[in-house]
């Protein structure tokens, strides 16, 4: 959320309508410096990222909610 002004537009984000009372399936596929993001439809990515902004390194992934409580 903090970087939305820097990383805004078609290359960085897409609008998604969520039914906040349902479970959703999320998949992120990272290969080298590219990534694809899938939400509910595991065959068609909603976002393709051609070049990730940091170099290839190990790390962690965090999922957060700023609107409602979330269960993982």
Q: Helices and strands in order, then pairings?
A:
Blueprint: E1 26-31, E2 34-39, E3 47-49
Antiparallel strand pairs: 1-2, 2-3
Plain-language structure description:
By secondary structure, the protein is an all-beta fold. It contains no helices and three strands. Strands 1-2-3 form a three-stranded antiparallel β-sheet, with no helix packed on it. The protein is globular and about 35 Å long. 0% of the residues are buried.
Task: Please tally the helical runs, counting DSSP H or I stretches of 4 or more residues.
Answer: 0
Order of helices and strands: EEE
Total number of β-strand segments? 3
Beta-strand percentage range:
15-25%
Cα-atom radius of gyration: 13 Å
Structural class: mainly beta
Unreliable spans are none
- CA-to-CA gap between the ends? 19 Å
Globular, elongated, flat, extended or rod-shaped: what is the shape?
A: globular
**How much is the average pLDDT?**
83
Largest sheet features: 3 strands, antiparallel
Helix content: under 10%
